[in-house]
Specification:
Chain lengths: 201, 201
């Protein structure tokens, strides 16, 4: 016996999402059956709209609505135009924005160099960053805000090699203990970075 | 800063699903952005179709396509018409069908009596079961296949009180150790049920 084909299709669609197996997909599909009609319609149209109406900013590579390109940050002339914060993806932009601590511009690579997965510098938004720097001599600092992974660090080093010769300051995020971290349980690489980067009080 | 409204809407829709918080919803929404266009379209139409084209079987209450009512099981005259297996929901029908051990009919209550949540006998498909039994004197056994929860057991007892006077045999699923269960870790209620229901070898 099979579920009605409409449910079967919904279960299959849910199970294509990451971290959702067949059992969870079934549970979600049955939940949808009991959901408010309007909520389901909104969900359905949000799916297609997100594909149709979301695009990448022509300047920084961040996601943006098709009717708002360049994106809200690139179009905001009140932001500090001399600093570019380079991140891996749009979610990182949101994370930094939520700190309310940074008021410059961004550049979203949409990936990092990862030779194991065959991702080279040409597969990410690296060239657009370099030409952006060439066309905007007012930029005097590039912050490499990539993940603290081997790939993220390698990409930062690669970027620094290309950018530093033009005299632009290149920084990366501080490595150290997370706030609230317990020294006993910190891994040794984090700990040695925290020691070598110690700050005078 | 906010995500583009199309993404924001998709995140909100995902986070309405059970067990999916804001972070997972964001991860899923970004996954959708990178999904194959056709997969997203299928997903979107599966959502609306599941609401539009799925209904409950007019006989047994199981979910079925709108163009297949009564459902496939109720319309299958080769099945044993003398036994009705009463379950809580359509997923239970699927679970029993997957055992390939039962070939009779079903009745889906779509719930159990739960006074704490204000669900009484009139809020589930109980009346339709009783009238079904009245109209089909060939039924000689009703199996109460409800969950082994207090609510499930109370509903079984309630059903038995209504059905047994008409001379129909009323059974419930055996309680005992799950296959592969370790006696040491079985809870005491399961264990005492397993002892009182012991089987001669």
């Amino acid at each position: 016996m099979q579920y009605p084909k409409e449910i079967g299709q919904l279960i299959e669609s849910f199970s294509k999402l990451p971290g959702i197996g067949n059992k969870t997909a079934t549970r979600l599909a049955f939940f949808v059956l009991n959901m408010d009609n309007n909520d389901v319609k909104e969900f359905s149209s949000a799916l297609t709209k997100s594909k149709e109406d979301v695009t990448f900013c022509s300047i920084c590579g961040n996601i943006t609505s098709r009717d708002m390109n360049p994106c809200a940050i690139c179009s905001d002339s009140s932001r500090d135009q001399t600093t570019i914060f380079v991140v891996e993806d749009s979610q990182a932009v949101m994370a930094i924005e939520n700190t309310n601590d940074y008021h410059g511009l961004y550049h979203v690579l949409n990936g990092v160099i990862n030779p194991m997965q065959g991702i080279g510098p040409n597969d990410i938004n690296m060239a657009s960053l370099l030409s952006r720097l060439k066309n905007h001599p007012e930029v005097d600092e590039v912050i490499a805000g990539l993940d603290a992974t081997p790939e993220g660090e390698a990409t930062s080093m690669y970027m620094a090699r290309l950018i530093k010769p033009s005299g632009i300051k290149m920084t990366t995020l501080a490595r150290g203990l997370s706030m609230g971290a317990n020294l006993d349980y910190a891994d040794s690489i984090t700990l040695s970075r925290a020691v070598s980067g110690r700050i005078e009080l």
